[in-house]
Each structure stands twice: as structure tokens, then as C-alpha cells.
């Protein structure tokens, strides 16, 4: 009996494990992607797209720098604002950072479970909670600030230079405040 080469290949593929075939598809896709990058066209000139891509890269670097402390950019921002604004309530902090209430509650739950901050019922408005850093939160924030300055921001400064960094902050602040 004669079997065609196509039938032999089909039989080989059907005997492969699912992980092997998935790996093969991934390898083939990576090889094709490496050989032929997608053309972005006008997308590469869209400010929103470029901002998002830059933001993703900046956050990836931030997370690598903060891996030992397990802090996200949002958590770091909350700790900074609580430090600089003692006695302010959680609604004010969330609003300033543009974090929705349900997301902010989950974020605070995480920080509290790690003993980095605490919610204290306000003496002025019993419906409201003020936020304070714990001693552990103060210590973690001190270490985080050093890591951000020496690793994360230093890398951005090296890439951009001081004048471009200041200009970029000014332009992005204009968009954030006026757009």
C-alpha cells in the first residue's frame, strides 16, 4: 500500500502532543514576525498611540525597579500623596489620581493588608476616612523613593536629558490639565 507524503505529515501531526503543536505555531509566528514587522502607518503618528506605548514601557521599567518592594505605580502614587497630604480623605486622594472609587478601595485594601497605610474615621465627618502611612509604610516609601530616583527616573533622565525631560513634563502636564 502506498501512502502519500501529505498523509504521512497528517499522521505525524495527529500524533504530536497539543503542547508540541502550540509551541510549533508559536515558533512559526515568532519567525514570521521577526522577518516581517507590522506596518503601523498613520498609527505611529497618533499622539495617543505613542503616549500609550511610552506609558507601557515606563510602567514596565517602574515595575522592574520596584519588584523588591512589590509596588505598582498607582500604589506608589497613593503612598506619596498620603505622605504629602496628611489627614486628607480617601475620596480626595482617589480623585486627585483619577482612580475610580471601587478600584481605589481595592488598592487601599491591598496597602492596608501589607500594613503600609491605614484608614481612620474622620473626626469631622464620621462617613469619611482619612489616610495615614504606617511606620512600615513610611519605611517602604523611603526605600521606594530611592529606587525611583536612582533607577527609574535616572534611566529616563539618561535617555532624554534634563532639558527634554523638563519639556516633556511641561507638555504632558498641559495635556493633562487643559485637554
From TrEMBL:
Q: Which residues fall in a compositionally biased region of kind Basic and acidic residues?
A: 1-29
Q: Which InterPro entries match?
A: HTH_MarR-typ, MarR/SlyA-like, WH-like_DNA-bd_sf, WH_DNA-bd_sf
Q: Please provide the Gene Ontology terms (biological process) for this protein.
A: response to stress
Question: So which domain of life are we looking at?
Answer: Bacteria
Residue ranges constituting the HTH marR-type domain according to the UniProt record: 44-177
The record's annotation in PROSITE patterns points to: HTH_MARR_2
Which residues lie within the region annotated Disordered? Answer: 1-30
Q: Where are the transmembrane segments?
A: none
This entry's Gene Ontology molecular function terms read: DNA-binding transcription factor activity
Spell out the PANTHER family in the cross-references: MARR FAMILY REGULATORY PROTEIN, TRANSCRIPTIONAL REGULATOR, MARR FAMILY
Q: Could you identify this protein by its name?
A: MarR family transcriptional regulator
The species is Bradyrhizobium niftali
